[in-house]
Amino acid sequence: MTSERDIPLDRRDEAWGRLVLAAQKCEKCPLAPGRKNVVFGDGDRSTRLLFIGEAPGAEEDEQGIPFVGKAGQLLTRILEAAGIDRKGIYITNVVKCRPPGNRVPSIEEMHACEDILKGQVALINPSIIVCLGATPTKWILKTGPGESISKIRGKWFDWKGIRVMPMFHPSFLLRNQSKKKGSPRELTWIDIQEVRDRWLECR
Ligand code: SF4
């Protein structure tokens, strides 16, 4: 089977450019009228490590870049502490436009935005996907109500040949400041080191 990485770079660049353009013009769901910017993604798309969050927040909508608000700054610090250069990975969200009041995107909105995320995954062709929080975890792994993020975080799953790890969303860590043993922050530190180690193996 031909992988996306076998496709010449200029053709992948063209396909990526078409995807960016399609997202910028997209009005497929009710989130379009309220956005300031379509937040497509950020980072190095030749990476093997893709992080997927839920949706842009106010700061992300303002700047057009994912994970630049308080939660994003915490994510950047966690990555740095683990020795992962944020510029060397790619970060995006399940939906590319900000839901009002930072609510969880509806099933219909996620479904409407699905082709963009699928296109990004196909063109990046990552070895590892990290799902930040419950929303991307449900989208990717189709987890049910009994599989909460606290139960499945830190575990590896296979999704179409890609290794997928759910982790806590950094906004959850902002609300849970404890660093005690077994706290979300301590568990996230364990998880990110595991991700780093597996990423180093496949680089
Ligand atoms: S969230 Fe996705 S589907 Fe909805 S308008 Fe934005 S780009 Fe289009």
- Please, what is the average pLDDT? 95
Q: Strand pairing plus helix content: what structural class?
A: alpha/beta
- Count of distinct strands: 6
CATH-defined fold name: Uracil-DNA Glycosylase, subunit E
Number of helices: 8
Radius of gyration: 16 Å
Distance between the termini: 21 Å
CATH class bucket: Alpha Beta
Q: In sequence order, what are the helices and strands, one letter per element?
A: HEEHHEHEHHEEHH
The neighbouring-strand order within the major sheet is: 1-3-2-4-6-5
Tell me, briefly, the overall form: globular
Helix content: 40-55%
Describe the largest sheet: 6 strands, mixed
What is the total number of structural domains?
Answer: 1
* Beta-strand content bin: 5-15%
Bound molecules: iron/sulfur cluster
